[in-house]
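This part of the workshop introduces the protein records we will be handling. To make this concrete, we reproduce a full record directly below.
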Amino acid sequence: MNQYIFEFIGTLVLVLLGDGVCAACSLKHSKAKGAGWVVIALGWGLAVMMGVLIAGPVSGAHLNPAVTLGLAIAGSFPWTSVAGYIVAQMLGGFVGAALVWVFYKDHYKATADEPDTMLGTFCTMPAIYNPYRNFVCEVIATCLLVFVILALGFSGNAFQLGSVTAQTGSLGSWPVTCLIMSIGMSLGGTTGYALNPARDLSPRCAHAVLPIEGKRDSGWNYSWIPVAGPMVGAALAAGLYILVF
């Protein structure tokens, strides 16, 4: 149960800080408004780092159903824990998004005439709506994410410090932080790089139920892509890892 609790807390913090940087850079009268894509990519990378620092020692800090699925397929995580992890992650994402709304409530009210902007602080929407292309983008980006996470634990990714040999993955959150920032800066321009159903579907549900003044629909016609794409990408990454390593 402790593992599920820490997955919940870690994912909550990830979404609180990740959606928080989107709100800070997008909502009217925010001191960070207009800070731009680089700040958002850095903010999301650091959000992942904070979540990993909290949950890593207890749950391994998957914080993402796609990562949990990929690790299970690769044989690095027990299937019996998959459902519990995913439930905890989804609940954490919902609460994290709700806290962003509480935090920036005055700014959401000031941005009530821009419903698309408000939705974009909760979940992803594509720059150009093309379901096939959007799906492929999410598959490729998440495949890269999960493949590199798996590769970090490979024995070849090790360094020697005196008599101590350490895996790259044992450095903790920093390699994954760099990975998230790299994907955001390089591959995020088409769909907003969801990579994570708990980062997208859960906040989308929060957007749907919260009493946000001036909000639009929650983009349900697109909502399946940031869920199915990452899960397919994670499965492909696990298969590729087994094949290559």
